[in-house]
Amino acid sequence: MPRARKPASPFRYFNSSPEVIRLVVLMYVRFPLSLRNVEDLLFERGIDVCHETVRFWWNRFGPLFAADIRRQRASRMRSFTHWRWHLDEMYVKINGEQHYLWRAVNHEGEILESFVTKKRDKTAALAFMKKALKRHGRAETIVTDGLRSYPVAMRELGNLDRREMGRWLNNRVENSHLPLRRRERAMLRFRRMKSLQKFASVHASVHNHFNSERHLLDRQSYKIRRSAALAEWQNLMG
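^ that's the sequence the OP posted. Answer follows.
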């Protein structure tokens, strides 16, 4: 039988090393830094990269790294059947116009899905929930706020009996908005729906990868998990 051809490296046309590219994408996506902040921090470390190169690399490699992270985590996540999902939508302004970023988070703080729409009606809620259910399977319990679009969409999907609603029950997803809010301020907001959707998806995967829930761990366990996450990151697309 003929040998399976090894997929071509995504770094093959770039003069910079994969390690530098991974570092640039990590710094820009994970931390609330501007393009020029990343350029200056790299220069202090002896790496001369233009801020436009930072922009190009995160646009080019960010979705590839995010997809690789999702592939590695998808099989492990599907093994948990008794999931508790938290759904919420946050306001995001694009060129002065209000849009909505819908997000699904599980009981461990894992960001499952991010979905951008212009409205928050039944059609938007239905599209968001269909996408999340298709990718991650069935949830045992779905926690939402009082938005009326949720029960209407869930009734059509046939899972309205799994809905829970309460004043503080959805704090898990409310708190998960904060890292993206910090990134939004550093980026001076978003210009297009497409760029918001792209960045939100990449940011969610990177956040999930490095989220070790340090408030629940002792210092030594946290250091071990952090080192393991960094080692896995350095081997992405390798």
